[in-house]
Amino acid sequence: MIAIIDYGVGNLFSLSSSLSYLGLENKITRDAKDIIAADRIILPGVGAFGDAIEKLRQTGLIDTIKAEVAKGKPMLGICLGMQLLFDKSYEYGEHEGLGLIHGEVCDLNKDLTTGLKVPEMGWNSLNFVKDHPILKYVKNGDYVYYVHSYYAKNCDESLVAYSEYEVKVPGVVSSGSVVGTQFHPEKSGAVGLAMLKAFAEM
Amino acid sequence: MITKRIIPCLDVRNGRVVKGVNFEGIQDVASPVDMARFYNESGADELVFYDITASVEGRALFTDILKEVAKEIFIPLTVGGGINSLEDFDRVLKCGADKVSVNSGAIRNPGLIKEAAQKYGDQCVVLSMDVKRVDGQFRVFSKGGREDTGMDALEWAEFGVKNGAGEIVVNSIDTDGVKGGFDIEMLEAIASRVNVPIIASGGAGNMEHFLELFQHPQIDAGLAASIFHFKEVDIKELKQYLRDNGVEMRI
């Protein structure tokens, strides 16, 4: 069973539906028992970093998540859920993240100079940097769907794949059993589904 | 790099697609679920569902259909039509919509844009506007393009984005249905005032019109209904044609 952590941010209908469509048992939950019982964990998220990490803290699940990950349980962070995996974020102030992946989350707008729009909204292609089990069924150059205004920086050691948006936007990052995708696999058509399938086999 | 997007729009009344005809390989051309499946397989980058139902029963049918679609189509889904309150946002988001498009509802209550953006995020709020030239001005029309609101479209776009609209759909009443090409002049005028994605609607008649549209870097997406429904333009062929002509496309 895949535990989708419900901490009150974002819409989990599509994520849950995409896993069910793949025949993967999943449960939207905020119960530590489910997270311990699960084979894998997904940390979703939409919205602002500060608000999200605070809500996640309020669930009291952070220690459980960290303990499960330390045992090697695969975890996938999606979009803001991926950003939460990092050490810190500079979205409206400075906020500490989960520290499961080294790096920080910064304002995309500040680093763009050619007038590209923020949020980056739409389909962008992935450039693979290194091999990873989550890329098992997809190929270099495949398109995925992004919606974000902040992006990860200083995370070269965990970088698996990136997309070009004037700057290199980390699309897939990973450290140990933890993976993060800045894009939404549950909205990235067949490519996204293939990545969720690969995550379930990790 | 980020791609330009091709977006078919499905008008749904009482649970059925309006204007869906002549599709090979689809058993039920008026079924929104079958149509969504077809467009997804053709390579549509997003889908827009427009609820043109007036009745309460029709509205319930619409959300049931939306749920059915969201259970098997995993690309962005935008829902519009009859969105007047946060409850309406909630109702469609719970059924699998990713973005919600407001039009007349925001004209009646401009505060709705901000309330929704604060609650669901900017990326969720699409401001859709029907625009027509009146006395040398781009004027916003309401009620499906029937009523001149007297509002300036450029100012309305600016207001919308300032209040949290994350995308703008510009439907030109002047070019809509004419099939002579998108209203580039109007689109450029609005795009020059805001820095969020602009989705062009109204006027597409052939593949060349999309190529012409995407020569303008500030335009992010092209939306159309009947030319896709009537198969005058095939999305798969269109995307290949655009890519062959140097436009970044997801294929």
Describe this structure in words.
The complex is a heterodimer of chains A (202) and B (251). With 202 residues, chain A is α/β, with parallel strands linked by helices. Chain A has one domain: Rossmann fold. Chain A is 27% helix and 33% strand. Chain A contains seven helices and 14 strands. In chain A, the strands form three sheets. Chain A has an eight-stranded mixed beta sheet with strand order 2-1-3-4-14-13-12-9. In chain A, strand 13 and strand 14 form a beta hairpin. The longest helix of chain A has 13 residues. The radius of gyration of chain A is 15 Å and the shape is globular. Chain B is α/β, with parallel strands linked by helices and 251 residues long. Chain B has one domain: TIM Barrel (Alpha-Beta Barrel), CATH 3.20.20. Helix content of chain B is 35%, strand content 24%. In chain B, strands 1-3-4-5-6-9-10-11 form an eight-stranded parallel barrel, surrounded by seven helices. In chain B, strand 4, helix 3 and strand 5 form a beta-alpha-beta unit. In chain B, helix 1 packs parallel to helix 2. The longest helix of chain B has 15 residues. Chain B is globular and about 45 Å long. Chains A and B meet through helix 1, strand 8, strand 10, strand 12 and helix 7 of A and loops of B.
